[in-house]
């Protein structure tokens, strides 16, 4: 590597640093920051990478199509939330959680960590925040707290989200080359077993690091949203938090080892929900003393509150807890049954695809599977709820009208954010002879890191997820690169690839379009920088701890692993 390579690596990271500077330092809203960052990325792609203008525009349009898919998910989540508000179900759900515990620390662990992890295992695509954040809002959480906590849990379960998509698609497709297949065969493994083992080496560090995520989540909640601004109040729930952490990560890891990468998050979340909710009802491991709560609503700073206050209104006669929860139960059931590979529904729904091939005459294409998107399930269940809850026409009209109003602001930010991502990733087709921007950056980091690469492997995974907004895309982008670095330094390929997946999951906590999307579901727009400045703390914990484990695994515990 020479000085020129270093210069290009610096140029490649500038758009990422610009996004962080605009959002976190200057505290610009994403609606302002992302158009400027997009223009900068486009300029660098055209000028330094010599990407043809038509290719850059095609990549941008590809991003717009992806953003439309995300907006459909957001819209569906908002419609479901407002439908439950208008039907009176939200008020009943709120009372049901109060009956389990009035302590907000307990509530956030059950809803965000456990229910959110289960939804991530079933669906992925940022769906946990779209489901859990509005639910927390309806329970009386400030909008900012609801989004922050649901973003923090977008870590441990993500590598096995959407029934294992980051591993089964991201890793499997990226590594499906002769070089890797020949080496795997020489090691006495089938390619299927190799992918299974990547899942195992992903689950082990995740389980170790992720067990503390519920405790970190509640301590951050009490520090930033408590009357006393105290970490100590969050630590007061340490027994329940660690119990909930282990209730998820132990079965999660066991499922990855014995069943494969499809079900760790889904089954781990489901098992943990059954264990932890039962324990909470029996009063086991609950925090001692007065239940912790937020300050009175009238004392909340304006930055805590979004366009939707979360007021649920009064309970309605005949709205039982089972009836109120039925839409969420149906959503969960549909997400699971339409994602399981051994059922026919996934193939049926995925077969309906709208594709723009050879965008603007380039090799770039982008497809949308409208029936497979979680947003379609949200919309369908919202319509079904009208019948289940016996809603009036005026109530339905208000729910849909309010939802449409909330979608306008995040739409602009998402369109530019995802367009930026695609220009950045698709910059490999150029006249300069350079690899794409993320690969140039990663190769330079690998050159500087040398034998200490296992420590940096999760950071690269997180970088990919921050840019792309997806663990799957991060794995597609960097898995073969990570394999090659492990080869060069003589480290275990499985360890390094597992660290890539772990980092790719952790990066979801701060990726811009996840932050924008989650904020939009509770009507919170313009606080993206504030959220990233907070969620970057658990993200750094995650990648640093995972990186330290990576050095231990690569050079001590698993140095003889393939």
Could you give the order of the helices and strands?
A: HHHHHHHHHHHHHHHHEEHHHHHHHH
Strand order of the largest sheet: 1-2
Which residues sit in consecutive blocks of at least 5 with pLDDT less than 50? none
Number of strands: 2
| Large-scale geometry | globular
What is the SS-derived class?
A: mainly alpha
* Percent of residues in helices: over 70%
Quick one: biggest sheet? 2 strands, antiparallel
Intertermini distance? 28 Å
**Total helical segments:** 24
Strand content: under 5%
Alpha carbon gyration radius:
23 Å
**Mean pLDDT over the full residue set:** 91
Write structural notes for this entry.
The structure is a single chain. The protein is mainly α and 562 residues long. It has 24 helices and two strands. The longest helix has 35 residues.
List key phrases describing it.
mainly alpha; 2 strands; 562 residues; 71% helix; two-stranded antiparallel ribbon; 1% strand; 24 helices
Question: What's this, in brief?
Answer:
With 562 residues, the chain is mainly alpha-helical. Helix 7 packs antiparallel against helix 11.
């Amino acid at each position: 590597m020479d000085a020129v390579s270093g210069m290009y690596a610096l140029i490649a990271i500038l758009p990422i640093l610009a996004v962080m500077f605009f959002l976190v330092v200057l505290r610009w809203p994403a609606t302002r920051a992302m158009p400027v960052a997009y223009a900068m990325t486009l300029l660098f792609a055209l000028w330094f990478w010599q990407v043809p203008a038509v290719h850059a525009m095609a990549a941008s349009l590809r991003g717009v199509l992806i953003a439309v898919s995300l907006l459909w998910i957001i819209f569906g989540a908002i419609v479901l939330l407002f439908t439950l508000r208008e039907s009176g179900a939200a008020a009943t759900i709120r009372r049901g959680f109060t009956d389990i515990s009035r302590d907000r620390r307990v509530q956030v662990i059950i809803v965000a960590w456990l229910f959110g992890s289960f939804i991530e295992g079933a669906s992925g695509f940022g769906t946990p925040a779209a489901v859990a954040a509005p639910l927390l809002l309806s329970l009386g959480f400030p909008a900012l707290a609801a989004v922050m906590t649901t973003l923090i849990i977008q870590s441990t379960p993500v590598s096995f989200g959407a029934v294992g998509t980051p591993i089964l698609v991201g890793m499997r497709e990226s590594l499906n080359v002769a070089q890797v297949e020949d080496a795997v065969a020489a090691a006495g493994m089938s390619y299927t077993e190799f992918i299974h083992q990547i899942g195992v080496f992903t689950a082990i560090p995740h389980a170790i690091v992720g067990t503390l995520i519920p405790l970190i989540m509640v301590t951050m909640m009490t520090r930033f949203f408590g009357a006393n601004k105290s970490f100590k109040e969050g630590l007061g729930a340490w027994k329940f938090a660690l119990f909930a952490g282990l209730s998820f990560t132990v079965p999660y890891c066991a499922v990855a080892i014995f069943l494969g990468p499809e079900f760790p998050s889904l089954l781990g979340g489901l098992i943990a929900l059954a264990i932890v909710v039962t324990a909470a009802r029996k009063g086991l491991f609950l925090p001692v003393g007065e239940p912790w709560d937020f300050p009175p609503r009238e004392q909340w700073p304006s930055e805590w509150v979004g366009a939707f206050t979360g007021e649920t209104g009064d309970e309605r006669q005949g709205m039982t807890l089972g009836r109120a929860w039925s839409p969420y139960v149906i959503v969960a059931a549909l997400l699971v049954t339409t994602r399981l590979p051994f059922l026919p529904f996934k193939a049926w729904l995925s077969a309906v695809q709208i594709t723009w091939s050879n965008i603007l005459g380039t090799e770039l294409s982008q497809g949308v599977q409208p029936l497979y998107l979680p947003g379609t399930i949200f919309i369908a269940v919202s319509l079904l709820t009208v019948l289940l809850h016996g809603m009036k026409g005026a109530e339905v009209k208000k729910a849909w009208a309010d939802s449409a109003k909330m979608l306008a602001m995040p739409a602009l930010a998402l369109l530019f954010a995802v367009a930026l991502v695609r220009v950045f990733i698709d910059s490999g087709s150029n006249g300069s002879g350079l690899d794409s921007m993320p690969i140039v950056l990663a190769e330079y980091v690998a050159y500087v890191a040398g034998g200490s690469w296992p420590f940096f492997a999760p950071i690269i995974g997180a970088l990919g997820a921050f840019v792309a907004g997806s663990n799957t895309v991060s794995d597609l982008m960097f898995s073969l690169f990570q394999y090659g670095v492990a080869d060069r330094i003589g480290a275990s390929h499985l360890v390094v690839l597992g660290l890539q997946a772990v980092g790719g999951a952790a990066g979801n906590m701060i990726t811009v379009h996840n932050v924008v999307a989650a904020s939009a579901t509770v009507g919170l727009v313009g606080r993206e920088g504030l959220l990233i400045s907070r969620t970057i703390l658990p993200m750094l914990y995650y990648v640093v701890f995972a990186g330290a484990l990576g050095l231990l695994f690569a050079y001590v515990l698993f140095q003889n692993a393939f």
